[in-house]
Write a structure and sequence with these properties.
With 393 residues, this protein is of the alpha/beta class. The chain folds into two domains: 125 residues, Response regulator (Rossmann fold, 3-Layer(aba) Sandwich); 241 residues, 3-Layer(aba) Sandwich (Rossmann fold). The chain has 16 helices and 15 strands. Strands 10-11-9-12-8-13-14-15 form an eight-stranded mixed β-sheet, with helices on both faces. Strands 2-1-3-6-7 form a five-stranded parallel β-sheet, with helices on both faces. The chain is elongated and about 70 Å long.
Length: 393
């Protein structure tokens, strides 16, 4: 993951500690990080009032202020800037209290390494940004947002769930867009029995700055049941590389066109997928309850953490593509992975095969089926805000 010109305000009165922190960040690969030092609170407020910073590294012990009061005064004056607290061994309890009051993280000075410091800064910025996006989406409508689905590995049925989840929303009168966010051919068009005249490759060729609600909207295909879809490439010669900037533009444009944007993210890591998930209101990891997929799920969660996909956005959905004689329960999976299991989708081989032949998703063609009921239950839990925030780490 590359640094994106992070500007850090280091509030530290000890010159030796400040120099050491600078060297640690540089040695850890933070060459693009710009550090500005403030030695006391008046200088801190002066800097914050006149300059923009990605994050504040805040020492709790300053000449004119100590302990939790130091954090409180800075946070209340500039709540829009994330803060990572620096503490000593003797005031670690105070640092924990600062996190409970709104700090993104805390680091004990004696235990800091360059790598841990750089990771903490990155994660804090991403967590803060994700929270601000979520709050913004909630202010705009409470239930609206971008929802990303990603498989722990290929073949777990991510695209099938995406099309049924999005169709359930559309069938209930919500405006919904499903986006196959990939640069190579996928299976969405075959599930809907459609050959779209335009797809994501035609949008990406415009460049990130030209991806707007208007240019996206003109390439969306509308289904008879109200869902709008941006399909992935339809053949090998249309394969493209979707950049992080283009993915951001697609997600932001879609959010202006619909109440819900449902993203189908490839299981393999891409910069486009990571950026889309960082911008999502909810991220769901799909997995099957068998050993290989459980291992892949743990790896996927670690990759998502490293990419800055924040813990409070995560949830897992268990997909039973076949009835396994022995499988871990949802509670066991939840304890193993450390994320909330928000739903279990039962086997539905025959209904899904019939849906693919007809091009009509199961939730539309067979709304009374057990499969449809499980998908609709997840939709209900999401739209009624019953999914609790869980932590990946």
């Amino acid at each position: 993951m590359q640094d994106r010109s992070m500007s850090i305000l280091l509030v530290e009165d000890n010159a030796a500690d400040a120099r050491l922190l600078r060297e640690m960040l540089h040695d850890a690969g933070g060459e693009d990080v710009v550090i500005t030092q403030a030695r006391n609170l008046p200088e801190t407020f002066e800097r914050l009032d006149s300059e923009r910073f990605s994050i504040i590294l805040l020492d709790l012990g300053l000449p004119e202020s100590r302990g939790l009061e130091t954090f409180t005064r800075v946070h209340e004056a500039h709540p829009d800037v994330p803060i990572v607290v620096l503490s000593g061994l003797d005031d670690e309890d105070v640092a924990i209290s600062a996190v409970q009051e709104g700090a993104q993280d805390y680091l004990v000075k004696q235990n800091i390494s360059g790598g841990s410091l750089l990771r903490a800064v990155r994660y804090a910025i991403e967590r803060h940004s994700a929270l601000q996006r979520e709050l913004s989406q909630m202010r705009r409508g409470g239930e609206s947002g971008t929802i990303a689905f990603v498989g722990a590995k290929g073949g777990v049925g991510t695209t099938t769930l995406v099309v049924n989840f999005a169709s359930a929303l559309a069938n209930r009168g919500q405006s919904a867009i499903a986006i196959e966010l990939r640069g190579e051919p996928g299976t969405l068009s075959s599930l809907l029995s459609r050959t779209p005249p335009e797809n994501i490759s035609h949008l990406v060729e415009l460049g990130a700055r030209q991806i707007t609600p208007e240019t996206l909207g003109s390439r969306l295909q509308r289904t008879p049941f109200g869902l709008r879809v941006l399909f992935g490439p339809q053949e090998a010669r249309q394969e493209v590389e979707v950049s992080a900037e283009q993915a951001a533009a697609i997600v932001d444009s879609a959010s202006e066109l619909a109440d819900f944007t449902i993203l189908d993210i490839p299981s393999y890591p891409t910069e486009a997928g990571r950026e889309a998930m960082r911008r999502a209101w909810r991220v769901f990891l799909l997995l099957e309850p068998e050993a290989a997929c459980m291992y892949a799920a743990r790896v996927s969660l670690d990759v998502l953490r490293t990419a800055g996909v924040t813990g409070q956005l995560m949830g897992a959905i268990v997909v039973n593509r076949s009835a396994l004689p022995v499988a871990p329960s949802a509670q066991e999976i939840q304890e193993l992975l450390g994320v909330d299991v928000v739903g279990v989708v039962p086997p539905a081989a025959e209904p899904c095969a019939a849906a693919q032949r007809s091009g009509i998703p199961v939730v539309v063609a067979q709304p009374e089926s057990v499969f449809s009921a499980s998908v609709i239950e997840i939709v209900d839990r999401l739209t009624s805000e019953q999914i609790g925030r869980q932590t990946v780490w």
